[in-house]
Amino acid sequence: MIEIYNISVTLSKRRILDQISLSINKGEFIYLIGKTGAGKTTLLRLIYMDILPDKGNVIVDQFSSSKIKRRQIPYLRRKVGVVFQDFKLLEDRNVFENVAFALRVIGAPRRELKIRVLSVLTRVGLHHKRYRKPHQLSGGEQQRVAIARALVNEPFVLLADEPTGNLDPEVARNILGLLETINRSGTAVVMATHNYDLIRQYPHRTVVMENGQIAKEFSAEQIRSNS
Question: Rounded to the nearest 10 degrees, how much is the dihedral formed by the CA atoms of 25, 58, 47, 123?
Fold first, then answer.
């Protein structure tokens, strides 16, 4: 589903990623862990082609970083949902409109838009708060809105960049539970985090990044046996 071949990335004259290769299978749940600056966010940006590698190639579905044209990138991003640590919600719009925005951009018909938005809000447990503005929601609820917005286009993979970084431990566990539910429905999840406690509680394949390289990998079974 996603193949990363021997990629390197330099930003502002600093080597961020150095000769990384990684395969992500359909429906898989993967953690990217490592300290700040290890390259986790950059690797996610490569997957939704916010940046392109200096060397190597990234293949996402039928899109290749070595061949993709700028006009094709929006079509790629319809298949890749992205969730950020700081939510990135539109403060002047309610929950429904924040989620609907992702469909309005692609010109979805009004009836289809309404059905899909209400369906995904039900899925994340926020149907009853669809008319609230972001400032009227808790941090965990805002992150659920961000997840709903990322899911409304029915992507095959959800990229989550430190989605629990601004949340207290109990809310973080709830968000992880939601991501696991989404994954069990068939959507792949790639989550960047440095929260080792969550990984031990919700073990999945884990890729450890250090200094722009993949230092090691652990399977879910290895994490369970070491917990």
Answer: -30
